[in-house]
Design a protein that fits this description.
The structure is a homodimer. Chain A is an alpha/beta fold. Chain A has helices at residues 12-21, 30-39, 41-50, 58-66, 71-84, 133-138, 151-166, 179-189, 211-220, 235-248, 262-272, 287-298, 308-316, 334-344, 351-358, 362-374; strands spanning 87-90, 125-128, 140-144, 170-173, 195-198, 222-225, 251-254, 276-279, 303-304, 378-381, 384-387. Helix content of chain A is 44%, strand content 11%. The first copy, chain A, has a 9-stranded mixed sheet, sandwiched between helices. In chain A, strands 10-11 form a two-stranded antiparallel ribbon. The relative contact order of chain A is 0.11. Chains A and B meet through helix 7, helix 12 and strand 9 of A and helix 7, helix 12 and strand 9 of B.
């Protein structure tokens, strides 16, 4: 098994392959991500184009081939287009890669279905704006809520964002109208560094009515997307994008949402990732607060917040900002948890000894170790694997 | 040790003494209640007037004596006045006594202070209205909230009370303006049986503006008070009264309250008694919802409710309406809990054997057993004490 971050990590071949793979499957695709973990991006691309992985993205590859898909060409075009817009590509081996998003490697949604297949870490990120991505996201909070927000929701969002900016927290939101827009505008007004995580290329203003806002964000903060320039904001991409917002931040605040809002799905991602999941209550007579109340009622891990003071308190709680490894096991799949436990019971363990101790096939152990390493739960040494002292 | 409910229980001497004792200490007074538990009401009255219990209510007795206090006379006058208003006296040995209020015997508030001394069960109750008290309160819910309620709070209270009346729940509230009034008016409109628990005599309309409402309640439902007719609604009595409302009902709903509202204190009583403590959220921008949010944030046992459906669900939860003994230990003081545990580990135990097993003085065991019996947690048999199968 080759290791993730092979010799070619960060090379132009690696970067090119990561871009090209986005044409073959949506970001977060489990099979694709596992292949890249095992073989690296260039070899994965080669295997796919050679038909060595018939199970993975077969239809997409067939389509791509029929259209005369040329990886180098699409990557070059994307990079060229990005350059025109002052955007850059960030890959996992880059210094500004936000390590926190790697925790998606261990996300268990517990729900089958199309969208819950696309929950793995991103292969690469496109960024517009001059701040380093990791540093900007280090102390960051997602603000989410309805596009059809009421004056109440906007007022509350303004209040919370102001309070977060005053304490130098980065505010992260989508690009939609309503709460997203209110969050960014307030962050701009307060001299903060707004980050908009988009479900389309960073060169595509969507909604068009926010075009001027996106320009301001690109100048003052960051526009971030997993999709290459030019990619369209398809409906399902907003939900795929939400996992990234949840993973990239320390916690998420839900201000207003109807029960079936996409903002609720973002909160579920935050809960699965053990992020601070903060919810603003509202009038029980308002349908735009019904989703908030439903979440507060059904998930004991959510926290009711009434303003910036409550939010800052929730973020300051131990285990939030620098969560201890013990507190993150809950989001591990059972096999990873078994492997981790076996690692923690030894000084240094080899994969073979872990297989013996856990009763799992060596192959399974070898698949789980990179995930645990990415999540900052184990470290590799020359002699084998040891438990990590602290998360990366 | 004499048992509570001696031969004289329910006799005219017992009734007279219980009325007269109200002149010597506020309802719920711990020392007074303990004496009545140990000696019965008539003997307690005698001991107090003889000066045999100098520690208890000494100042009040001195004052009473100075004023030529005549127990028979004050009791006769109170009964006479009650009769004029169609009110009756209900004592613990009466069939319509609401057994649930006896659980106040084991209430631990965990907070020292003047008011938290007055938390024991009532010695007697004054009732106006034709329904039997116990039956009326059997399926009952307290509605509480600010007197200075907003239209939002009133709207929500109306909605919840309507839903409760539709399912034949009795609605219990105080007599104040705002939420109390809204609850009673809605119950009347919905054909329910409103119960107003007052902090003064049932013949005294307070506030006077609600005089007509009290008449309607007396005709359709019940007016209830621990204070004899003519007694004034002193400030501290509202807080003493709240423990009765909490104990008499299956659960309490807080609709709107500022953080220092008396309604919050009622909710704390409900929590201490392990009643369903249901709280309606509201706009975080409204100070009248700030108390609700504070309670929801600080007490995990509170339940966020958004309307009648949520309230009915909370009331239907196992352990609510007929709570199992196991679920009630949490409200016991440590010594009572020790004694109970020792009882549960034996078939039949004598007080002496319980003292040996628990390491507590026999005197302490003898004091705790009546409380546990009242709370329906132990039963006395000819051979000793056994654990109760189910609460009384």
């Amino acid at each position: 098994m080759s290791e993730p971050g092979d010799d070619d990590a960060g090379s132009s071949a690696d970067r090119m392959a990561r871009i090209a793979l986005t044409w073959l499957a949506e970001p977060g695709n489990r099979s694709m991500w596992s292949l890249v973990q095992s073989h690296g991006a260039p070899a994965t691309l080669e295997r796919l184009l050679n038909g060595d992985e018939p199970e993975t993205a077969a239809a997409a590859i067939a389509r791509a081939k029929a259209n005369g898909f040329d990886p180098q060409q699409v990557a070059d075009a994307a990079l060229h287009r990005a350059e025109r817009f002052g955007a850059r590509l960030v890959v996992p081996s880059d210094e500004e890669w936000p390590e926190r998003v790697n925790e998606l490697a261990t996300l268990e949604t517990g729900r089958p279905g199309r969208l819950d297949q696309d929950t793995r870490p991103p292969l690469c990120l496109w960024v517009r704006g001059s701040w380093p991505l990791a540093e900007t996201l280090h102390r960051s909070v997602a603000i989410t809520g309805a596009h059809a927000s009421t004056p109440y929701g906007v007022t509350v969002a303004l209040d919370i964002v102001s309070g977060l900016c005053a304490k130098n927290w980065t505010v992260v939101a989508g690009g939609g109208f309503g709460i997203d827009t209110a969050a960014h505008r307030t962050a701009l007004a307060e001299g903060g560094r707004p980050v908009a995580v988009l479900a389309c290329g960073v060169d595509r203003p969507h909604p068009v009515g926010n075009a001027a806002l996106f320009e301001q964000i690109a100048e003052t903060g960051l526009l971030v997307s997993e999709w290459p320039p030019g990619f369209e904001p398809l409906r399902h991409r907003f939900l795929i994008r939400n996992r990234l917002t949840a993973a990239a931040t320390v916690g998420a605040v839900l201000t207003e949402a109807s029960p079936r809002s996409a903002a609720i799905q973002l909160m579920h991602r935050a809960l699965s990732l053990r992020r601070a999941a903060m919810v603003v209550p509202g009038p029980v007579t308002s349908v735009m607060s019904a989703g908030c109340h439903e979440l507060l009622r059904s998930h004991p891990a959510t926290e009711l917040v009434t303003g910036p003071a409550d939010v800052l308190k929730a973020l300051a709680r131990p285990g939030r900002h620098d969560s201890a490894p013990e507190q993150r096991h809950g989001s591990l799949d059972p096999e990873s948890a078994q492997v981790l436990q076996a690692v923690q019971q030894h000084g240094t363990a080899t994969p073979e000894s872990l297989a013996t101790r856990t009763g799992l096939p060596l192959r399974t152990v070898l698949r789980r170790l990179p995930l645990l390493e990415l999540a900052g739960l184990v470290q590799r040494t020359d002699n084998g694997v040891i438990a990590a002292n602290r998360p990366s």
